[in-house]
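Most newcomers find our protein records easier to grasp once they have seen one. Nothing more is needed to start thinking about how sequence determines fold. Here is such a record, shown just as it appears in the course material:
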Amino acid sequence: MKTTLLGHPRIGRQRELKKACEAFWSGKINQTELLNTAKEIKKQNWLQQQDLGVDLIPSNDFSFYDQVLDACLTFGCIPKRYNNIDKSNYLELYFAMARGLQKDNIDVTAMEMTKWFDTNYHYIVPEFEKEQTFHFFSNKIIEEYKEALTLGIKTKPVLIGPVTFLLQGKEKESGFHRLDLLDKLLPVYFEVIERLENLGAEYIQFDEPCLALNLSEKEQQAITKTYNKIAKKFPALKVFLANYFDCYGENLNIALQLPVDTLHLDLVRCPLQLNDILESEHFNPKKKLSLGVVDGRNIWKNDFEASIKIIEKASKKLDPENLWIASSCSLLHTPYDLDLETTLEPEIKQWLAFTKQKIEEIVALKHLLKADNDGYLHLFEENKLANLTKKSSKLIHNDSVKTRISNLKSSDSHRESTFSTRQVLQKQALHLPLFPTTTIGSFPQTKEVRSWRLKFKKGILSQQEYNTLIAKEIEDSIRFQEEIGLDVLVHGEFERNDMVEYFGEKLNGFAFSSYGWVQSYGSRCVKPPILFGDVSRENPMTVKWSEYAQSLTDIPVKGMLTGPVTILQWSFVRNDQPREVTCNQIALAIRDEVTDLEKAGLKIIQIDEPAIREGLPLREEEWKNYLNWAVKAFRISASGVQNQTQIHTHMCYSEFNDIIASISDMDADVITIETSRSEMELLDVFVDFKYPNEIGPGVYDIHSPRVPSLEEIENLLTKAKNVLPKEHIWVNPDCGLKTRDWPETKDALKNLVTAAKNLRSQTLELV
C-alpha cells in the first residue's frame, strides 16, 4: 500500500507566487527573479512531501496562472490574435493570454475564463477553430520533471487528459465539434509522453474529471479511443487515470475496461462508488485503485475510523500492493499549513487539517493499516477524540436559529408583486435614464486602504481614525462617480477585505484563519471563512457605510451584499448537516440586512450570487434538487422588501445555458453578468430564453489591466441593443473593480459612461 497526491497548492506558504507575479507585472522584478521564486516554491513543495513520506509525488501541478492555460501552451493551442507577440518571450505571451496586453502597438484581449467544474477556481478556456493545429510548444512539464530529478525525486507528472482539455474548451466558429480535434491533439500528447519516458518517468497522471459528467456516447468513445491508443503506443507506461469531484456514474464500465494501471476514485464526494466497482463484472483485481479518502476540497480533519473501513473493504478484493491512499482531488483547493495559525479558537482548530496536515493524514492511514502500527496508534486516538468533540460541541448549535428555519413559510420566498408590476413602480421611484450606468460594487483597494485595515487590526489606528479614513475614501469615490456621470453609485467597499470574509466576520457560526489562502485565479487568492456552526446575524453589517454614502448624494446608491449561496460556496462549509439547511440560515441573515438597508433609505440593493452556477452538481440527475433550494435561498434573502425597492444580483464567469430557467426564477429585478471576453456571446442564452427582467451585460473586462476603448464598448453595447429590449439594458463592468488600479479604472469608466450616453442619444434620436 502506497501514498500519493493528485496535486499540491502552488501559491507558496506566504503567497510568494502572488507577490512575485504582481511585482513582475508592475516591473518591480525581472523574469529571472520571478522564475527563481517559482523554482523555490516547487522545491519546497516536493521536499515537504518527501519528508512527510509521500511515495509518489506529483510534478507539473505548479502553474504561474492556471494549469489549463499551461496545457494550451504545451500543445501550441494559441489563438491567432497573439501572433504579433514574440513567441520567444514565453512569459509575455503566457500572461497576455491570461490577462490581455496593451503595449506599444499591441492591444489584445485575454482569453475567456470560467469555473473549473464545481469549484471557485477559475481556468482559462481553450479556444478552438475548425482547422486547429497543435504542436509541442511549451517544455514546462519536461523541465519540471527534470527539476525534481535534480532533488533526487522521481515524480508523477500531471497532465490534463485530452478529452477533458477539449471538452472544457470552446469552438470559436461553427461547423465542427471540438472532439473532432482529438486525432490532431493526441500526437502531441504522445510526444510529451515519449520525452517523459526517456527521462525515466514511470507514472503519468491524466486528469479526466469529465468522467464525473453525463457523457454522450461520442464523448465516452473518445475516452476509450484515447487510452487504448496511449496503451498501444506506450505499453510500459503506467497511466494513473484521475477522476474527481464526483463518481464515474454511467461512465464506470467504460473506465473499468480502460487499459490503465491505476484508476483514481474520489471517495469523499462519492463513497458508494467503491461498492459499485468491487461488485462490477468488469472489475479487475490486478488493476490498481487510488482511494481518494482525504478531502481535497474542505478543511475538516479526516475521520480515520471511517477511512480505514473503506480501505479495508478494498483490500479484501485487491492485493494491498495494488492500492494507493490519496487525496480525493488536488490539494490546490486547501490552504498550506494549519501550523501557521496561532489565533484560531483551539477547540475549532483541533477539527481542521490544511494541506500539510492532509498529507500527514494520508501517510498516517498507510501506517495505521500495517501490522506494526504502534507508533501511529496515538494519532488514531487523537483523531477519534477530535471528531467526537466536534459532534457534541456547544459552539456549533443554536436553538433559536433552528427554530427560525423550521418556521419558514412559502411566502418568505416571494416578492409582493410580479416583476412587471415592480418595474413600473421602480421606474417611477428611481427616475433613471435609458441604458443606466453603474458598477458592480467595489472600487480599487489601494495599498493605502489595505494598510489602514491592517493598522486598525493591529491597534495602530483607533476606530475613530480608521472610520475617518474610510469615510474620506467613500466620499472621494462618490464625487468621482458623480463627476463622470454614473447613474447608480456604489460606496466602493473600502472597509471590506473580501466579499465573503467580510460578512462571515459579522455573522455567528464562522471562524477565520490568518493564512488560510487558496488560489481563485492567477494571482487572486482568497481566504475562505470556516463555516462551523449555525449562522445568525446580531447586528447590521453594511448599513452604516451604505447609509453614509447615500447621505452624500441625491443619486441612488446601491446597498451591496453577498448572497447566501455564494457565502456558502466560498466558505469551507460544515459537513455535519445538509448544505440546504446551512444556506437557508445564511439567507435569513441576509434578509435581515436587506430590510435594514431599505429602512435606511437605500432604494437599490444588490445581492451578488456569482457562485450559484458553481454549486450545481456535476451529475444532471442531481440538478433539480440543488437549484430548487439554491433559488429559494436567494428569494428568501431578497423578498422582504417593498415593490419599489429594486433588487439586483450579479453573476460572473459561468455558463448559464442549462440553468437559465432557474436564474429567471430567482426573480431579481436586474441581473448583471460578465460578457466582455466572449464579446456578448454569453448573452445569447438570455435572448433565446426571452429573459423577462432587466440585464446588465458587462462591457469592461476587469480581470485585465487594459483599458477598453470607447469604440470597443460602443460595439458591445450595440450588440446588446440589437437583441434585448432597450428598456431592459444596463451598462456596467464585468465584475467588481477591487483588483484594478485607479488610473485604468477611471479611464475605463469614463469610456463606459460616454458610450452609454452616445447610445442613449442615438436611440432617442431614432424615436
Observations:
- The chain has a mean pLDDT of 95.
